[in-house]
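User: Sequence in, structure out. Go.
Assistant: Echoing your sequence, followed by the structure tokens.
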Amino acid sequence: MLNWELLTAALDPRRGSPMFVQLSEALANDIRTGRLKPGDPLPGTRALATRLRVHRNTIIAGYRELMAQGLVQARRGGGTFVADEALSTLRALDGPPVASRAPTYSIPPPPRPLPLILPPEARTALILYRAAPDVRLFPTSVLARAFRNGLRRHGRSLLSYGDPRGHEDLRRALSTMLSYSRGLSVEPGELMVTRGSQQAIDLLARALLCPGDVVAVEALGNPGPGPPSGWPAPS
């Protein structure tokens, strides 16, 4: 039987990477070196968390990371096992590194405006096509009362410019949630709250991508009007 306590040497909360990433990398290296072979079972999340003296959510997140990479697979009611194709997957992942490139433009091109397509609204049906809640269902009177009370008590601070990263109390709550549920050691000052997922994706794309980069997306995504001027169309 494998000595799973050996993994404690690979886990260090003082490192920059999250604990669950360290765990997944250590297990992937065990697969790479042959210590773990295809078909070998991994310990249960509770048992391994007890042995390594970490939160169980850290083990769950590490296993999920390995599943996302195709290195392990879960069997309903049977546990988690090293995938049969784990070695070939690792060879593909360990291919020649891609040289990092800095963006070649100073200011990203502005996005094109989305076309305004508003089908008729049926009074007896919910509106789902906007990927947003049906505004007709908003409790406007309750919302107005909450705004009025908030402005009466904290009007001066609420009407001024706030932290561009988002409200501090919200970021603190998110930091706690990410620590408990994802095993991430992140401070509130390292978080940014965006105005929806599209703004987050836009900021990440502007920081990480260059014109001409190839990006894989899932089917049936948000149908936009196409890439901005100067960006190649997806093929």
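User: And one key feature?
Assistant: The chain is about 40% helix and 5% strand.
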